[in-house]
Design brief:
Elements (H helix, E strand, L loop, with lengths): L1 H7 L4 H7 L3 E6 L2 E9 L8 E3 L5 E4 L4 H13 L3
Antiparallel strand pairs: 1-2, 2-3, 2-4
């Protein structure tokens, strides 16, 4: 964990987690599913919780540009 924190320039997990956002990308049959997460904050040690109702999918053979735009949108919906 210390190596990761050093690589991202954070002094602790808490300092990193306060500003971090994440989303997962999974293959579901012939679709890619982008699932944004909510940062639970200090009450729950900054755990990341999936926001199921905001899952976005796109065809597996979408262009790089389409994939990039959807990933950007997924990050924008993170909390």
């Amino acid at each position: 964990m210390q190596k990761f924190l050093k690589e991202v320039g954070a002094k602790s997990w808490t300092k990193f987690a306060k500003i971090a956002i994440t989303c997962s990308i999974e293959l579901e049959r012939d679709q890619l599913a982008f699932l944004p997460y909510r940062n639970s904050g200090p009450k729950d040690n900054y755990a990341f919780v999936p926001i199921q109702d905001r899952k976005m999918t796109i065809s597996f053979d979408a262009s790089d540009e389409e994939l990039g735009l959807l990933l950007e949108k997924a990050f924008e919906t993170c909390e």
